[in-house]
Amino acid sequence: MTATAHNPAYTAAAQARDLVKTYGAGEAAVRPLNGLSIDIEAARFTAIMGPSGSGKSTLMHVLAGLDVPDSGRVSIGRRDLTSLSEKQLTRVRREHVGFIFQAFNLVPAMTAEENILLPSKLAKKTVDRAFHDRIVELLGLRPRLHHRPFELSGGQQQRVAVARALVTRPDIIFADEPTGNLDSATGTEVLDLLRAAVDEFGQTVVMVTHDVSAAARADRVVLLADGRIAGDLIRPDVQTLSRAMLEVTR
Amino acid sequence: MRHITLANLRTGGGRLIAAGIAVMVSVAFITAVLALSQSFNDAMRKQAEADAAGAQLIVGYDSSAGAPPEASSDDPNAHDSATGSDSAGSDSAGSASAELSTKLAKRLGRLDGVESAQLIETTYAQAQAGSAKSALGLSTYPTSRSMTMDAGTTPAGKDQIALYASDAKTLGASAGDRIELDSDLGAMGGDSAGSADTKKDYTVSGVISDGEGYGTAYLTSAGLNRIDAGASPDSIRLTLSGNQAEDPAALTAAQQRVAHAIADTAHGAAVEDEGDKGLAVAGLSVQTNDQLVGQKMESLTGSSNALVSIVLAFAAIAIIVAALVISNTFQVLVASRTRSLALMRAIGATRGQIRAATLAEGLVLGVLGSIAGLLLGWAGAAGLGLAAQKLWLPSFPVPGLPWTALIAGPAVGIVVTVLACIVPARKATRVSPIQALAPLDVPAPDRRFPWVRAILGGLMTAAGLALTLTGALLHSLLPAFGGGVLAFFGVLVLSRVIVPPLIEGCGRLLEKLTGGSPTAGLVARSVRMAPRRAASTTTALLIGVTLVATMVVGAQTLKTTLSTELVQRNAVDAAATPDAAKRAAGDSDIVAARSELAGASAKAALSGEGTDASGTTTVLGATRDSTSAARRGNLVPERGEVLASTSAIPDAEVDEGELEGARITLRAHGESVLLRVRVEQGLPNGTVLADPADIAPLDPTQGNGQTWLRIADDASPSQVSQLATDLQAAHPAAEPDLSGAMQRASYGQIIDIMLTIVLVLLAASVVIAIVGVGNTLSMSVFERTREAALLRAMGMSRGSVGALITIEAVLMGVVALVLGLALGAFFGWAGTSALLDLDGVTVVIGLPWLQLAAIVAAALAAAALASALPARRISRIVPAEGLTR
C-alpha cells in the first residue's frame, strides 16, 4: 500500500511548467495563471492557498485536465496532458484522477453506492471489492450506501465523494474547497480522511482552499498570488501560515 | 412588476422561443382556416353574382320546391290556352315541361315594364375533343349577361358552344375547334358504349374568360335542345325597361307583377312573400338579383361553416398540445428562477407581484406568438389560395385577413397562453424568501405519489374505455366518441402516474441489454428527479401518436370490414372467359392472382320443394387449387354437391331457402348429372361450381371454363375500370364481372383521401408536440449543467453525456408509442365499429403495418431530431466552467 511512499521527495505526481491562462480580452481580461510552474510530490498532501482571484482554482482545473492552459506544459505521472485530445484527457481523468468538490459532488439520481462505483463503470473496470469494502467501512458509509444524495447530510455527501475518489486508486486526487460547505466538526472529519488517504493508502492529494486551518493539515502549502507562486511552506503551523497569507494578500 | 417581467423575459429569452412557436403554430392554423374559408365564400359569392349578373329579376325553378305551375294545373280552360292542355300528367322535367317553361317565359316577356325574358335550361354532357374528355354542365347562354371573352364570340347558332378558358384548356380546344358532346354520361368509362344518337358535334364559338366561372359550357336554346331535348328549366331571367332596377319601389312592383302573372297561369295560386328570399308562387321563386345571390350564399355558407367547424376541431387539438408545451415551459422557467424569485421576495416583492409578473410574461409571449401566428397563417392561406387559383379555380381570390381571424386567432392564442401560465404562476408565488439565502443544494426529487391524479385519471380512463366499448358494440357513435374523449383525457391525467415508471423501466431494460451502460442507467434514474417534466413531454408526443394511430387504424379497419362485406357479395374479384383474360389481363400489373377453371355450358333444371325452373348455366369444376384466386376459401364443393347462388339459373326466381338442398340436373352432350345445391352467394353471374369428378360426364374443357382474377388491393378505380374495358374489348361476349374489385378500389380511394386530409390537419399538432419535446429537453440541459460537468470531470465522454439527452428523448418516444399505438388501435377499431351499422357484419380490426411502422419510425426520428441540439449543447459543457457556476 505504501509502495510509492519510500522515496516521496523525488517523485513528482504532477508537474506544471510556465502555465499561462487568460480569460476575457482588453480591459476585462484576467490572467489567473501567469507563467506558473509547480511540482506536486507523490504520496504527499499538498494544499494550494491564495486570496480570491489568485488563480488557485484555475491551477487545479488545469492540473486535473479539466481545463487547458493557453501555454505551458502539464503532466500527470509521465503523461503529458498538453498534447492530449479532449477524448484522451477524458480518459486520463477517469483512469488517473480523483475529484472531491465543494458542493454538488454527487449525481443526484444515483445512490451513494452507484456514485462511488461510477468512475469504474465509466472506465469499464472491475472494482477491487475488498478495497471498496475497506474504504466504505473506514468512512462509515455502510448503512448509507443505498441512499440518494438528497437523503444524506453535507458531511455524508463529502464522505461519499472521498470514497469515490479513493476506490479507483487514482494517481492523484484533487479536492476543491472540500470543507467549504461544512461545519467545522464535519470539516475536520473530512480533513482527517484526506490525511488518512495520504498516510495509510499512500495517495497523492492536492487541495485548494482558503481556510488556513484546513491548509495547516497539509504536508506542503503553496501560496498563490496574481497567477504566480508567492510562497512555498513545508508543514507550516497555523500562525506561520496566517502570517504568510496576510503578506500575500497585502 | 414591470421590472420583474422585463427581467424575466430577458433571462427567459431563448427558452421562451419554443413556447412562442407553439402559440404561433396554433394561431397560424386558426388564421389560415378562417382566411381560406372567407376566401372560399368570396369565390362562391363572385360565382353567384356572375351567374345572376345582368338579370334584374329571376324566376327560379327550385327542384325541391315542387312541380312548376303548369304541371299542377288541371283546368283545361286556363288563361293561357297552351298551359292547361299540355300539362296533364307531366310532372317531370320532360320535354312537355320544357315547352311550358318556354311559354311562361314568353308570357312574362310581354308584361309591362319587362324588356326581355329568357328561359335558361341546364343539363350535363360528356365533352370530347380528340382524346381529351371532360364532364361539363351545359346551360342556355344568358343573353342578358355580358361575359368577357378571351377569344371568339358568344354562341349564336345551334351548333355553337362557348367554353370557359380552363375547360377549353382541359379539352385542348380553342375557338373554331370541333368538339363532341355525349349526353350519355354512363359512357364515361368504356369506349364501345354510348350509342351514336346521344352524340352531337359542336363548334367552339368562343372562349370565355376564367374570371367568370368554370365547369359550364353555353349553347343557344336550340343548341341545348339538340343534345338534350328534355333539359331541365333552371330559371327565367328578366330584364326590366328603364331604370326600374335602381328604384327599390319600382323593382318591388315589377317583382309583384311577375309573381302575379305566374299566379294567373296557375289559376290564382297564392303569392307568398318570403322576405329576404323574395316571392314564392306555385313552386317557383321570383327574386331580385340581390335576393338570389343572398339566398345562394346563405345555403353555401351553411355547408362551408359545417366544414370550418370540423377543421377547427383539429385546431382545438393543436391548441391543447400547445397549452401543454407552454405550461411545461413556464413550470421549468419558474423552477430555474427559484433563486431570483426568492431574492425578489426577500427585497420586498409581494406574492401578487410575482404572480402578476409571471402572468404578464405569458401575456407578452401570447401577444408576440399570436402576431407571428397571424402573419404565418395569413401567408400560408395566401400560398394555398394561390395554389387553388392555379390548380383548381382560376377565379379563387387570394385570401385577405378577415376580421374573424384577426380577432379569433390572437384571442385564442393570448387566452390559452395566459391560462397555461396560471399553474406555473401559482408555483412562483410559493417560493419563499429564505430560498434566496439557502446554499445551493442537491435537488430532491418530487416524491409525492399523485394520488388524486391516479384515482381521477383511473376512473376517467376506465369509464371512458367502457363507454367507448359499449358504443362500438352497439354501433352507436355518440357514446363511442364521448367515451373516447373521456378515456383520452383520463390517460392524459394518468400520464404523471404511469409515464415516469414506464420510462424508468425502459431505461433499466436498456441498461441490462447494454451490459450495464452507465448512460442508460443514469437516464433511467434521472426520470425520478423530474417526473412531471418527463410526463408532460411524453404526453405531447402521446397525443400526436394516438390521434394519428387512431386515424390510420380506423381507416384500415373500415377498409378491411368493407372488404369482408364485399367478399360476401362477390367471392371473385373478376371473372372472364379464358380467352379474354389471356389477351387483356395477361400483363396487367393489378392482377395479383389467377385461377383457371375448366367448365361446360349446361342446361340446368331445378327440382325441389315448390321450385321448378331451368336455364343455361356455366358449370365449373372447382377444387381448392383451381379456386385459389377467389376471395373466399369456401368455394370447394363436396362430391355430389353443387354451389349455386340464387341468381345462378337465369329466369329462375327462387329464394335462398328454396334453393338450399334442392336437386339440380345438369345436361350437356346428351349426358346428365344430378347434384344437391349448397347455396353460396357472390359467385360470378350464371355460374355454378361442382366437383370436377361429378361433372366429368359433361365433358368440361378449359375453353368453356372461366378465368378468375384476384385484383391487387391497392389497385385504383381507374385501373380497375381500364381492365374492365380491356376485357370487354378482348372478348365482347366476355361480360367481365368486376363489381367486387371496382367497389373495393372506390371505397379504398375515398378512405385514403379522407385519411390524407385528416393527417394533414393533424400535422399542426404533431409539429407543436415535437417543438415541445425539443423545448423540454433543452430545459433539462439547463437544469443539469452542473451534473453534466460533474460527469465530464468524472470521465464520462462527450458522446455519452450527449447520449443522456438523446436516450431520454427516445425513451419518451418509445413510451408515447407504446401507449399511443395501443390507444389508437382501440379507438380506431371502436370508432369504425360505432360508425358502421351493417347487418351481420362484425368489425374486425385492421392493422396497417406499414403505416404503423411509419409512425414508429417518425416518432423515434422526431424524438432523436428534437434532442439533437440539446444533446450537442450538454456535450459541449466544459467541466471546469460547469462546476464553478
From TrEMBL, chain B:
Source taxonomy: Bacteria, Bacillati, Actinomycetota, Actinomycetes, Micrococcales
Name under which the protein is recorded: FtsX-like permease family protein
Family, as annotated: Belongs to the ABC-4 integral membrane protein family.
Main location: membrane
Membrane topology per record: Multi-pass membrane protein
Organism: Brevibacterium rongguiense
One of the record's GO molecular function terms: transmembrane transporter activity
Alphabetic keyword roster: Cell membrane, Membrane, Transmembrane, Transmembrane helix
InterPro entries membership: ABC3_permease_C, Macrolide_Exporter_MacB
Region (Disordered): 63-96, 603-634
Any Pfam family matching the protein: FtsX
